[in-house]
Amino acid sequence: MESYGDLLRKTREAKNLDIERVSREITVDKKYLVGLEEEDSGVFPGEAYLTGYLRNYANYLEIDSEYILRLYHNKQVQESPVPEGLIQKPRGRIILPVIIIPIVALLLAGGIFALVFGLTHKKKPEEGVVISYSKKNAQYEMTDKKLAKRVYKGDQFIIPTEKGKIILTVRDTLGSLVLDTPAGIFYVELSEEAEVDIDGDTISDMIVYVSDISSINEECGAEISMLLRKGSPVSAYAEVDVDSIPLATDFKAKQVQKVILEDNRAYPFTIKASFRGPCLFRDKVDREKSVEAYFSKGELFTATPHNGIRLWISNANAVNFTVVADGKTFDLGMGSAGEVLVEDIKWIKDTDGRYKLVVIDLE
Predict the structure, then answer these.
(1) CA distance 278 to 322
(2) Tens-place pLDDT, residues 209-238
(3) Are strands 156-161 and 139-141 parallel, antiparallel or unpaired?
(4) Cα separation of 149 and 142, whole Å?
(5) Do the Cβ atoms of 231 and 302 come closer than 8 Å?
(6) Were both Cys, which of 85, 205, 291, 314 would link to 198 (CB 3.0–4.6 Å)?
């Protein structure tokens, strides 16, 4: 079987690309790229990260991402231990006639006893015991609230977005929860809290946790909880509050550092931060309360504001920011090492009636 790690490495080398350059251009930490090439899954915080980075790396190298994901999943299947029930254990030699006759006699006696006992001692099933799993496939529409359900093969989760509905389908519930998404197939193991990329942009959109699943009967389904992250497609579905967009004349000219894009309308945008080093980071999305956290090298932050976001960064050189709006990606260089920055990234309305997404310095 072809190795997905060797395919990545050979393709990168054939294109004369060093791994540091690739890391910079796709904003994925070098250790994760090395982990993919060496097929070392231990460096990743979860399988959703591994498959997301694998898809991103393959697309960058112009390799068929679906093919390379199949290579990865095939390797996982081959390395999985053979279930004990499928291993035929050697049996000792026995004298068949000596034991068959007593066994048949015992089985007949036991069958007669069970039949008589069953007819005279009928018992109702205990409460809480599942007698039958036959059911129609269910559909659940996701909101910003956590969904906790027992789900079965064929069940679907509907996620409304600005561009339409995204549908996730339960592909399997045997041993692990398997979800079909537009971004590919995701596997979530028992007691695992997995980050799931719904739309294939390598950004985590949903957290899925599996609390109960059978390894021998897929009809038992899986007990799960699902929660869309802040800035997920559901949040992006909300409308921009146009009335609260400030006018360009409200700001001094020197305050507007950079115009990211212009359009005749305003719409939600996504901001992604990848951390190259330790940094204390605070964000305030739209009118929500500000959130402060400490980030380390290799960690990621994403949000999808409708009108704007305020950022406070303790070490500007430690963070690389990317803005995604109207299907386009814009890289933002924020500052130098040790520099403390406070920035607004928001929509403003110009005097000609057009909207501008800008970066504003709040010294």
Answers:
(1) 18
(2) 998 998 888 888 999 989 887 655 554 444
(3) parallel
(4) 12
(5) yes
(6) 205
